[in-house]
Specification:
The protein is an alpha/beta fold. The chain has a single domain, classed as 3-Layer(bba) Sandwich (D-tyrosyl-trna(Tyr) Deacylase, Chain: A), CATH 3.50.80. It is built from 3 helices and 8 strands, in the order E-E-E-H-E-E-H-E-H-E-E. The strands form 2 sheets. Strands 1, 2, 3, 6, 7 and 8 form a 6-stranded mixed β-sheet that branches. A two-stranded antiparallel sheet has the order 4-5. Helix 3 links the parallel strand 6 and strand 7. Helix 1 packs parallel to helix 3. The chain is globular, with a radius of gyration of 15 Å.
């Protein structure tokens, strides 16, 4: 799994012109799932995101986590994070999991993430054409790949 984690002051996702999810202060997480991903990746990544110290403390040092600040989370599925650009100019998405594998993992990720932060999260809709808006706070953007955990 690959996650692009962005600290935001606000973020929203629209589908067919209607707001599907929106948050204030917190994290926008773009999540890419591949075939080899499983429960261990979900456990590790949700814990990492909930506890990542990327919010400022009283000394303006990034020393607080999403849990510490009580922030919100908006999760968006994004298969293009697994794009391969090694050959030619058209990215290949061969590593991205197909819906029959990705959807159950995405849904499990949502449940586990809500458990980690102790509240509901906002989401997009798997496979939908989504318009994501955000105000990146900092800017702070971090890429986390579960294949790099060892």
């Amino acid at each position: 799994m690959i996650a692009v984690v962005q600290r935001v002051s606000e973020s929203s996702v629209k589908i067919d012109g209607e707001i599907k999810g929106e948050i204030g202060h917190g994290l926008l997480v773009l999540l890419g799932i591949e075939d080899e991903d499983g429960e261990e990746d979900i456990q590790w990544l949700t814990r990492k995101i909930a506890n990542m110290r990327i919010f400022e403390d009283e000394n303006e040092v990034m020393n607080r986590s999403l849990l510490d600040v009580g922030g919100d989370l908006l999760l968006i599925s994004q298969f293009t994070l697994h794009a391969s650009t090694k050959k030619g100019n058209r990215p290949s998405y061969i590593k991205a999991a197909k819906p029959d594998v990705a959807i159950p993992l995405y849904e499990r990720f949502i449940t586990k993430m809500e458990g980690e932060i102790g509240k509901s999260i906002e989401t997009g809709e798997f496979g939908a054409d989504m318009k994501v808006g955000l105000v990146n706070d900092g800017p702070v953007t971090i890429i986390v790949d579960t294949k790099d955990k060892k």
